[in-house]
């Protein structure tokens, strides 16, 4: 399996400027395809989470970095998890994108606590929590 391809979101993580934001774009079609059923988001999301952990750990070993810059599978999966709470309407897709990126960049409490998890879980979990928080906030306001 090509772990680098997965970790970098089909190499979107290699984008020179704002690779996390560019990588998150890959989550948009995923949310649209699977987001109409919460159980599909959960099933696909959990599968992608563990795929992300494995690919992130591969990249961590390859680069010798704790959170390699080109890894964007965490952004893709985190954004996707927002749709446990939301239907993937155009409005929700756009608002979730903006709010998720804001939360992912700022990493407010409790999101920042999840970065401390070991290995690939530390790369993935904070973004999943940011995605879940995004979905919950937007569920309350739209």
TrEMBL record:
Every copy of the YutG/PgpA domain together lies at 5-141
The family database entries (InterPro entries) matched by this protein are listed as: PgpA, PgpA-like_sf, YutG/PgpA
| Record keyword Transmembrane helix present | yes
Q: Name one GO molecular function term.
A: phosphatidylglycerophosphatase activity
Residues that span the membrane, as ranges: 38-56, 76-103, 123-141
**What's the domain of life for this entry?**
Bacteria
Could you mention a single GO BP entry for this protein? lipid metabolic process
Work out whether the entry's keyword set contains Transmembrane helix: yes
Q: What keywords were assigned to this record? A: Membrane, Transmembrane, Transmembrane helix
PANTHER family attached to this UniProt entry: PHOSPHATIDYLGLYCEROPHOSPHATASE A
The protein depicted here goes by the name Phosphatidylglycerophosphatase A
Originating species: Thermocrinis ruber
